[in-house]
Sequence to fold (626 residues):
Amino acid sequence: MIVAGVDVGGTNIEVGLVDEDNDVIARAKRNTPTKGPDAVMATIVDLVQSLDESPVAVGVGIPGVVHQGNVLTVPNLSKWNAQVDLGGVLEGMLEVPVALGNDVNVGLLGEWITGAAHGVDNVLGVWMGTGIGGAMVLDGRPFNGSRGAAGEIGHVMVQPGGALCGCSRRGCVEAYAGRRSMAATAAAMVDAGRQTSLFDIRNDEGKNTLTSKVWARALAEQDELATRIFGMAIEMLGIAIASVINVVDVELVVVGGGLAEKLGQDLADRLRIAATPGMLHPHPDLRWVPSALGDDAGVVGAASLARAAIIRA
Amino acid sequence: MIVAGVDVGGTNIEVGLVDEDNDVIARAKRNTPTKGPDAVMATIVDLVQSLDESPVAVGVGIPGVVHQGNVLTVPNLSKWNAQVDLGGVLEGMLEVPVALGNDVNVGLLGEWITGAAHGVDNVLGVWMGTGIGGAMVLDGRPFNGSRGAAGEIGHVMVQPGGALCGCSRRGCVEAYAGRRSMAATAAAMVDAGRQTSLFDIRNDEGKNTLTSKVWARALAEQDELATRIFGMAIEMLGIAIASVINVVDVELVVVGGGLAEKLGQDLADRLRIAATPGMLHPHPDLRWVPSALGDDAGVVGAASLARAAIIRA
Fold:
């Protein structure tokens, strides 16, 4: 049975056909529309229908709080202000069962089913992208919380009264370690007369924003400002991860998202070193690894939600 | 079948006989010995044997990291430096099955089985005592972590580079909100010439330390310094709880420990007010309540571990 996994990101919507071995056998991708839920749903339908085969079910990972098929909030997509019955509407349009999940929960699910977290009972997933996402497997089961809002490690407060976060609070770790915040800091530093190659690399790469690839290049070239901003991001994220590990006592940390794809084990090691001083009783064999599926984690995880939806249907 | 629950605290060891309705039908109590594990175990045996009936199994809650019957670390008891097979040794001495758990995990277990958290699937327990302890029920099961070290909310960092904590790290919330830290702050302020009734109340109550009762009296009398120090404790603990709720998305917070016994719902409400600004997507019906079993929570929870040990044996 072939199912489809859909990974709705702030920049792109990616769709994959996934077979029973969890291999992605076909892909399609388009920019995420900025005109709100209807446009996002139309794009999902177009992408799924553009695939070579018709999936028997569809799973969707979305960057928001998802509970019982409803998308409660989507802070990082524009014009998405009200609660939307995304599952119900997509089922009507696609005429197959549709399952929903939070994008990072779904990404870690992919890693847990067939990637870096396969077979591990207690896992913390930390996704470094535009924002900072988190997800957990606890006692051998994906954990989503009482209403699907668990895992928001980006909004662990690491500095009371600190930097303003996109969520309007102050001192959240995302305000230091999210790519959007790092870019704003870099721009402010350039305004203040500091030098950096970050924006030249951005132009050279033909991008509009400081993507993970841009950061990776600037770090590889030892750009001083990029190194400084990224060092602070790692330090702050290490503090947040240590606090979370003190509460959930996992045996594996999987680092995913765009930056993990570019920096790999080096990023996982830097976070390990930053978090170690703050951990009280870490598991003696606590491991830190990058995502193994990379960009496919979300598609594979969403596809596994689709399979579960068939069983329920 | 009658079992015994043992609650090993930094100050007292309390033992209770618990019947099948989870009622405590007899109690015994003694000061916690300060000469290390052997003295603690001898006292537990004496107390259990002093009870009217012989329990068919014994459960013990201990203020440390407990994994598979071993006590890995006990930071708050003196002369307890090595790993101890407490379960095995006590079984040899008492000749009945013995089960072990972390004291706060066991306290929340008591509340979950028959108290304030009865029937709730996702619960955060926050215990305010000498230190700050935590415990969780997640997806309808007590959660102890990969090695029994979960729930250490006291060591969530709320102020990088902040106050020195008993764990030797800086900025842990326990360094602001634990009673030991609050007492040290009060003593330093008195040294610096500030006025407070805290130490007079302590003497009046015939205590050696600033107990929960001493703090409750000083707060009731609107002592300015006590109010100030306690206000900071609440503020910092609110920040830590908000961060943890952003990660675990529970529907109930149970506040326990000595201070909850004295201050009750008022303490739970103060923590709710302090935590609310830091919560991202809290459950719309998130409830905050004090422990319902009070001092008995640990004994009842430990007794339920004893029952589980009979089933396993």
Summary: Chain A has a mean pLDDT of 94. Chain A has two domains: 3-108+295-312, 120-292.
